[in-house]
């Protein structure tokens, strides 16, 4: 394994280095098991020249609480940990990177620190570990040659917990195969991954093809009958589910009457009075056409629709 010092690196240098391989936090997404990040998002990150990092309050809290989680782990287990100021690269599989949180002193293992909201507590119940985190730890064990890892999580405002994860060589072999194919067949060759249903992928399609649309050209629709029948089944199912959800919402509103909030230990339901001001663009266009044209902003895009099939 190759050790790359990161202590004196700028944030931009570190982000560029991260583009040169698949990290532990990418592993679950590449395998399609990260509910918040798609394989396509990883592909775009690794192939784009843009050096930026998605950031939000949850990610910031995760970074800020990392030291606290590590200290709580030491208190709970008696195990000592140390920070590593290196990025590690597998020599056998150079596309595999590891940016670890802590190493366990005296053991062939490491520690991954996490934070989660109270609403995510169910994912950790009864010894469970979210799948993407399990894969992240197995990825690190593959790069570092570790026998095991600990993962510690602070459920904000509720509890602290930790789990021990043993090395799973069969899972690691499958993970390496998937990551290798993704890196060599997609990232290096700049070949888009298969559609995955994500917003990222849809945005890419809109941006990539919007300027090249040929309005007067129709092509034969071949090989999609099964997909289109399934699409229609899904649309009908979604319609029924939407009605069912609306019915539940109506029962909740009937229960709440004029109250704005209802809570129990697992859920919070809000039905809050709000006032919204909207511009009457139709009236503005009719009564003040010059003002309307001056401030109107045109947007372009392609509208997708499917017609036909059984009623």
Give a description of the structure.
43% of the residues lie in helices and 14% in strands. It is an alpha+beta fold and 311 residues long. The mean pLDDT is 90. The strands form three sheets. It has a five-stranded mixed β-sheet, sandwiched between helices. α2 (24-30) packs across α6 and α6 (131-144) crosses α7. It has helices at residues 11-18, 24-30, 39-47, 57-64, 66-77, 131-144, 169-187, 199-209, 225-256, 281-287, 289-295, and strands at 2-5, 81-82, 86-89, 97-98, 102-104, 109-116, 148-155, 159-166, 261-263, 268-270. It folds into two domains: 2-199, Lambda Exonuclease, Chain A, CATH 3.90.320.10; 228-295, no CATH class.
Task: Give the structure's gist in a few sentences.
With 311 residues, the chain is of the alpha+beta class. It has helices spanning 11-18, 24-30, 39-47, 57-64, 66-77, 131-144, 169-187, 199-209, 225-256, 281-287, 289-295; strands at 2-5, 81-82, 86-89, 97-98, 102-104, 109-116, 148-155, 159-166, 261-263, 268-270.
CATH architect. name of the largest domain: Alpha-Beta Complex
Q: Summarize the main sheet.
A: 5 strands, mixed
Total beta strand runs: 10
Query: What integer value in Å does the Rg equal?
Result: 25 Å
Contiguous helical run count: 11
N→C terminal distance: 60 Å
Secondary-structure topology with pairs:
Elements: E1 2-5, H1 11-18, H2 24-30, H3 39-47, H4 57-64, H5 66-77, E2 81-82, E3 86-89, E4 97-98, E5 102-104, E6 109-116, H6 131-144, E7 148-155, E8 159-166, H7 169-187, H8 199-209, H9 225-256, E9 261-263, E10 268-270, H10 281-287, H11 289-295
Helix pairs in contact: 2-6, 6-7, 10-11
